[in-house]
Specification:
- It contains ten helices and 17 strands.
- By secondary structure, the protein is an alpha+beta fold.
- β16 and β17 form a beta hairpin.
- α5 packs across α6.
Length: 325
């Protein structure tokens, strides 16, 4: 009996940090115990920002050596729990160290935040602000341009304003004034502008011909300008494969109109076998505003009927390539 009691109260040993996610969540463990935590007092960057990954790597570096002590704001009866916690390495507050490197702070660590602001590091540096604006532009560019006779540039500008309004508190925190100018247009908009002079108003016949195959080649709205080839399945939609996934995009042609309806989208991730399927459904109408024998502008986005036509258009529009600003 004495041995059993002694075992129940055996020291579980020090905590260790097993993993840091880009969203700021920490996985910690010791002996037979494991839990999760976030750093109390730290305003972690959005996980979409490279800053978040950098912060996660820095936290792993800070905790690679030394004794870890962790205390949750709200602990269960056994003394550990999950949620906000203070984390110390050899007695030094990890949250304060990270804030000193340019992460945002909650009021209780305002002094460390003020030092970071004054030193113009992290999110308050010129490079950090530029990174945040690139992230914001990427969010704005995800807007799908749908509707009748939509002006793509107007949609991009509206999307930028909406994204800036939604993120206004975060932008203000890092002393960023996004204003109303979304900056240089994305590659896809610049390409549309370049090819429009050689296109004509689209007809129903142009759309029908393009969607009978064998392929349609898209220039995506974000990232460096590149050609993405989809296989046309007449009457069904588009499908493409790469090393890790299969993507499908349902398409319906609107009778007697140069218009298409995107009806669904699904992606199956593959890692030796199908691991899962994600996607969306619904209907979004996009007008085909311009066309030629080898190109179409669908809802403000350029598509081509061959890989060669797409590559020629990119080479003519961007002799030195085009990357997102």
């Amino acid at each position: 009996m004495a041995i059993a009691v002694t075992a129940c109260h055996r020291d579980p040993g020090p905590w260790r940090l097993d993993r840091v996610e880009d969203n700021g969540q920490l996985a910690v463990a010791r002996a037979q115990q494991s839990s999760f935590a976030t750093l109390d007092g730290v305003a972690w960057p959005p996980r979409e920002l490279p800053t978040a990954h950098t912060a996660a790597l820095e936290l792993q570096r800070l905790t690679a050596t030394g004794a870890i002590a962790i205390a949750w704001t709200t602990a269960d009866p056994d003394g550990y729990g999950s949620g906000p916690a203070s984390l110390r390495i050899d007695g030094a507050d990890v949250a304060e160290q990270l804030i000193g490197l340019g992460l945002g702070a909650r009021p209780e660590l305002a002094a460390a935040e003020a030092r970071a602001r004054a030193a113009h590091v992290g999110g308050w540096s010129d490079a950090g602000k530029a990174e945040i604006l690139r992230w914001l532009r990427g969010r704005a560019l995800t807007l799908q341009v749908l509707g009748e006779d939509v002006d793509a540039m107007a949609w991009r500008a509206t999307a930028w304003q909406v994204a800036a309004q939604n993120e206004a508190p975060r932008l203000a925190f890092f002393e960023i004034n996004a204003g109303t100018d979304p900056g240089p247009p994305p590659c896809v908009d610049r390409l549309v502008t370049a090819i429009l002079p050689r296109l004509r108003p689209a007809t129903t016949a142009d759309v029908a011909r393009a969607f009978t195959g064998p392929v349609l080649v898209q220039v995506p709205a974000t990232g460096a300008a590149r050609c993405v080839t989809w296989t046309v399945q007449p009457g069904v939609g588009l499908e493409r494969h790469d090393a890790t996934s299969t993507a499908k995009l349902g398409v319906r042609l609107v009778p007697d109109q140069p218009t298409v309806e995107w009806t669904s989208k699904a992606t199956a991730e593959q890692h030796g076998e199908v691991a899962g399927v994600s996607g969306s459904s619904g209907v979004g109408t996009a007008r085909v505003t311009a066309a030629s024998d080898d190109a179409l502008v669908i809802g403000g986005t350029p598509w081509f009927t061959t890989e060669a036509a797409c590559q020629r258009a990119l080479a003519a529009a961007f002799p030195s390539g085009c990357a997102e600003p």
